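Researcher: Batch entry, complex prediction.
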Amino acid sequence: MKRALFASVAVAAMALSLAARPASAEEMKAEVIHWWTSGGEAAAVKVFADQFTKAGGTWIDSAVAGAANARNAAISRTVSGNPPTAMQLNTGKQFDELVEGDLLADVDAVATEGNWKAVMPAAIIAAATRKGKMYAVPINIHGQNWLWYNKAVLASVGAAEPKSWNDALAILDKLKADGKVIPLAFSGQKNWEQNLFNSVMIGVGGAQMWTGILGKRDVALAQSAEFKQVAVTYKKLKDYVDAGAPGRNWNDATNMVIQGKAGMQIMGDWAKGEFVAAGKVPEKDYGCTVLSNGSGGYVMGGDVFVFPKAKDPSTTKAQMTLAKLMLAPETQIQFALKKGSIPVRSDVDASALDACAQKGMRYVADKAQQMPSGDMLAPPALIGALQDAISQYWNTDMSADDFSAKVAVVLKSQE
Amino acid sequence: MRLSLSSRASTISALLPALTVMLVVYIGATGWTVWMSLTNSRMLPNNNFVGLRQYELLLGNDRWITSVHNIVIYGVLLVSLALAIGFLLAVAIDQRVRAEDTIRSIYLYPYSMSFVVTGLVWQWLLNPTLGIQHVLRSWGFQNATFDWIVRPETAIYCLVIAGVWQASGLVMAIMLAGLRGIDEEIWKAARVDGLPKWRVYVSIVIPMMGASFATAAVLLSTAVVRLYDLSVAMTNGGPGIASEVPAKFVMDHLFERANIGLATAAATMMLATVIAVVAPYLYWRARKGEIR
Amino acid sequence: MTALAEPLPAVRRRTRMTPARWGLYAFILITALYFLLPLYVMVVTSLKPMAEIRQGNLLALPMSPSIDAWIKAWTSACTGLTCGGIRVGFFNSLRILVPSVIISILVGSLTGYALSLWRIRGASILFGAMMVVAFIPYQLFIYPLVRVFAVTGLGQSLLTIVIIHTIFGLPTMTLLFRNYFASLPVELFKAARVDGAGFYQIYAYIMMPMATPMIVVAVILQTTGIWNDFILGLVFAGRDNLPMTVQLNNIVNSTQGERAYNVDMAATLLTALLPLVVYFGSGRWFVRGIAAGAVKG
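Model: Structure tokens for the complex:
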């Protein structure tokens, strides 16, 4: 049954390519492993697939839900000598070893041709470059430290959009005193506990704290009074979270804000998908902002595609074609519309994007606000070890001093 | 009975697949795992020898220590509860109840479903704002509390609840078969002696079912050591690291955290523990002459 | 246990409803509730629209039940670019299941037979090693096995996944059959040897026919394990043979996308149907099979 489906897709693709341009000598096939399996994500990936088909190629979709599963499948394939044409990773250090093992093809030529280095944020280019060449194609930017809030709920306690964490805490206090809603909607899973901590760390500690801890692994900084201040602020947020938070999925927390059962949520911009699905309008029903105490920033995460080295020249051709079309300005806009992320190029016409996405583009346009994500600064092992420490701190009555000592140990032990 | 040459050849040929698998797969892969634990491999295996560094890190790792602690609690509770409940269910069904097929199926169906979604359902049921506590309070029991799953001290017991739910049916089936294998004569003799039924069970039947209990215990133990899906689906090791388990530690570090060195060190420790427990038992059985 | 405090009268066609009997049924009812509760939640959730699920009343019956989620799960849920539901992988799962079950039982029974009845030095060591290995999380073997299969040229294919399932089923299968054959009266075996029957003849004509209940047990255990397997199928089966569990994972497991719980429940229940049918169909056999031999430690 699956074969029939793919066969018909292939036939349709061929027919399209024959109609679109004069008969091409060979057919380009690209098998792509990614983890975008939900309805909205699939619609976004389809943008790329359609463009590839228009360019005369056949997109063979190998979606595997769960980033770790997809990576596992892709790496098993690569290692067993049957690599996919393209595989998805997060922008960051995940492909270091693939480059070191000489398993990836570089896309420097396409990057130069498309003048990517002039239109992408420096941190993202750096994250995609190894040994002076670009090995990954960044395709989007997901902001990780957004604050989403229900306009009506905040208005009911006379609060305006918060600018800093101090503002936010004041509003949370008001909501708690009012007693009608849960102040902070929270999903008690390790990675979101870490995401919340990160938002506080950059929002309260600023850019220096962010790069110092995650990038430089400054042990002294981890034991400084400023870091402990971040930890104390973080733990304070627990007072505004409800008892059912542990284990809750992030969408259910977003749903609390949508339904007016909670005031606000800290979540990446993929949360927008939930608002859209529920028919809510940005800046009318809900608001979006990034908190900063002065020197903070917009934490940029995102996705990249890498291309395992292929022996077959037609595969290489398919890879470079993919790389090129993924960064085409119009494709970038279409993808961003469907995915909820913002384009990775700054020179696109943002008027089609919604109010929150446009806000995001303004943040990114300001060089001082461009913050690399944790993944770009540190390897998965360090991020994971920090995650365990943060989660322990959040869920037990560990003191800020003990937590700071623990973080210092983690930073020291990861070379 | 001495084996003729052709018999010996046949036997060895029949055992060849198992032998090959054992050597290549199990011993080979286990050897690779142990070797990896002595390197600093991250996402891809490398051969940079670092001695026992990974084990040092492991012993200082809060999450690993909690995992080991948790699996012992989970193991003891699951095996004893599933054995007890499975046995009681089997005894109950053995009383020639009506609709035996339906009842037996009700107890067995959990085994057919993987934990990925059933774990989520249990999470909902045990969540205080969604599940049983919420329902009880909405029925008027204002002070009803059942929030084990959101409290670090008690989260592991929630895994036990779901684990017992899934495993008891299989145990019941094993026990029921064992019960049905007991001679009718025994019951008749007991009735003649005027023994109350429960005494027959306790003094005669249970001792005769030693083998059933042993098989069930072994199957349950393998499931305990390999516990992963449930921990991910129900609590994801939380709140915090309160319900982490060793197999999840291994998996997380193998894939998501791209730390093959640490993961294989943890797996080697698990293996060593199992050998330490199983080897003496097998030796004892061999001494008793039951294994040739 | 009050249910059995008093001795029951001799069994007649109609057993009297004594207080003990009522107690027994009460016990069965209460335990059945515990077992059925999650199933109830799953079915009820699968019949509700997402808007109602978001309200959060877990145990409430659906206000306007609909089987939309079921249809979507089977035919049109998105699992990536393809939105074909879990139906897409159904035949792949079957194609993996049938040969894997047959071959793993064949190899396991042969191994168990050899270990139990034929005196070979080192049999106990092999058997002991197999038991220990059954405790290891199988995910650890994925990377080395990937390399082994790449080196031998087998790569990812239907043959590969069948071999993999046989390998991982070997310890349990061997255990079951070894114990069963060891529990049979040894006179049978000796008589056959005296008659001049060889190794494979005894296996094929005497032992396996007698092992029918055990074979059914093995079928049930292997069917459940192989049908619900995800990661091995993902890594070893090859793109054209991906089992249904891969689609199920794609539907249910999503890091940043929206989640349709009703479809998730429906998809899980649909996936569980095949093992359930196998259980119902051979429930009787299952019990009798375990009786025969697995129990002898």
